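Field reference: sequence -> structure
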Amino acid sequence: MNVRRLIPAVATTAVTALGLATLSACSGASAAGNTDKFDVVASFYPMAFLAERIGGSHVHVTSLTQPGQEPHDLEISARQTAQLEESDAVLYLKNLQPAVDKAVAQSEVKTKIDAASLTSLEKHGNEAGGHAAEHDSSKNEELAGLDPHVWLDPVRYAQVAEGVGKAFEKADPDHAADYKANTAALVKQLDDLNTRFKNGLAHTRTKVFLTTHAAFGYLAERYGLTEEAINGLDPESEPSASRVKDLETMAKADGVTTVFYETLVSDKTAKTIAADAGLRTDVLDPIEGITSKSRGKDYFTVQESNIKALQKALGAK
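Structure field:
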């Protein structure tokens, strides 16, 4: 089995000033800090979405990752580093974006919220959504081999939301009541999404699905499915010939009908394998960023599209 390391090497030197991308109307287009609101810098879309939903009108949210940018490959510009220092809080997911981890560690931002510390992370094998931990090259002993894609599991994402809400309440006590109410509403919506996933995928012809990017291990585990990934946690890595052959054999044995690809990386590998194995292709979105190609306008609508895509591919009854 072809094993890939957790995250590709990412240069952390300053690059051309790109500015901070914003993700919704409440984010605005101004700099990250020095506004009259609680200024939050988020590392990428799933973190920005939480900050916006929980913070509501009291926060100004900016994202270090631009819409359409593959978050694993993010580099931090000199301007972004300066803007990070001006913010009131940073919300990120440790071990997903090495450049962000380094910038946060060196930053003097008062409130640092690591989403990975707010829920449980697991080591996943390739068949369950990740790779074998013993082959991981991460220098972080505590997080080595742990799959960071927790936001795709509504239950774990709800746990993260609760932790973010408490952090906001502590950092900005004047608006604590609103943060608490917004968090409760978001958690309820995530609970409802969990129920729809559970009911929608309870009875299917097969429980195995094939993806190009091993991002869906937590989702697969939550709903009794098995993800077979062409690549590891790095969506840009290339599978070996032996791995491709193994996947084609597995697809035939397990009744797999579809090779899933995502919106932020090339679909070339998926289409090549699908053509060789006589399979269909479709989108299963890891929701690392929302673009015009996304099947939905936010986290929830994209997840609804993911449910439908899985139901079709797995032969829901």
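Note: The longest helix spans residues 176-200.
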